[in-house]
Amino acid sequence: MPFFPTPERDDGYDITDFYGVDSRLGTLGDFVEFVRTARDRGIRVIADLVVNHTSDKHPWFQAARDPGSPFHDWYVWRDEPPPDAEKGVVFPDKEKSLWTYDRKAKRYYLHRFYKHQPDLNVGNPAVRDEIARVMGFWMELGLSGFRVDAVPFLLEAPIEELPDPHDYLGDLRAFLSRRNGEGVLLGEVNLPYAETMKFFGRSDGVGDELHLCFDFIGMQQMYLSLARKDAGPLTHALTERPVPPRDCHWATFVRNHDELTLDKLTVPERQEVFEAFGPDEDMQLYGRGLRRRLPGMLDFDLRRIRMVYSLLFSLPGTPVLFYGEEVGMTEDLAVEGRGAVRTPMWWDAVAEQRRDGDSLLAWTQLLVERYRECPELAWGTFKVVDTADPAVFAHRCDIDGGTVVAVHNFAEREVTVELSELEGELTDVLVDGTVPVKDGKAQVELGPYDCRWFRQVR
Questions:
Q1: What's the pLDDT tens digit per position in 289-298?
Q2: Same domain, yes or no, for 91 and 129?
Q3: Taking the model in full, what pTM does it have?
Q4: Backbone torsions φ then ψ of 439, nearest 5 degrees
Q5: Ranges for the Glycosyl hydrolase family 13 catalytic domain (predicted)?
Q6: Which of 7, 255, 340, 353 is the most exposed place for a label (fewest CB within 10 A)?
Q7: Residue 110 — φ and ψ, nearest 5°?
């Protein structure tokens, strides 16, 4: 979530100053101290880069309303809206068009989101230079990268000044890398796999645009698998998922700060997920998503919650965990819209669960530790394993000298599955124990909604 000064009409995504800190949160000095303290604890900090648009209260836009101002071309204007002005509206319950008339400018301006968030004209070199200055400013204060908001809208259409918008994304990465060789760009790209791959960069096996892209397809298919208690949809998605180019990776997640979008499911599939996890109309949003958090959707069943988090950390990619879910934080449907999942952190729950070795927080900490101890998960060759049981999702990750096999039961029943193509003995890394391997095969027993990680060192 952004932390910049804002009129607070869209939870901070309507920014009035890209070089400041919202006074409710502190000062620039507080920010620097926070980043330095995090770094001392081995934590690197990235922040939202929201440069598709600004607030309509931003000084740039206020100046741009004068057609004679040099800032006028910092935004996208038309004398008349296009015939398809309503096509692609992101918030259909709030907006009916992508274009709004400004009385002072006597022209229409583009806004992909709310009318109080006019789109910046990235085709303007002055705008691109300013975005670079914003990035450089925050990196100088210690940021290690950015989550790039609404990337497809940022690179929406080629124009004369920017014939290939992807060149600009490559420029952003090059600028970041010059400032910090370990910096990252994490992109919000909710598109089919083939389209998303273009945002990693060149097709010659070397990525030069985004370092990470959220796996929206895998996330949505996972919820369909949870609703059906059948691993099939997730298996299909991850079997079809392309391998990113070198120096790039997928960001795996089960929830983010927006509505839980299900837009890539078919209408019948979406309805299945609605019926399972958000049957009430008040739980749904925009006809395509849920304004609920994972623990509440799973009825606070710790078995299922632990299984899903285990899946998150075992899949190839970089796991991204939404704040509060490590302690079972749920939504507040009394809060309007997306705000239902953006409520304050449950710090009391953190304090309580720190004293409980069996808590969800303890489980999440264990997963983080084991993930760091298993380089196979991050760097190994990924393969879905056939278990002959539709309720079980199993996969393995292999690198030279080591293998990790993860098994997850989506059903509320006990299962026994056979794993093959193994050598030696399997060590369970989540609980103490081993599983013998005979003739390259091993029998694994799983309880309802159970999960296991097995490691084999050769």
A1: 999 999 999 9
A2: no
A3: 0.95
A4: 55, 35
A5: 1-370
A6: 7
A7: -85, 140
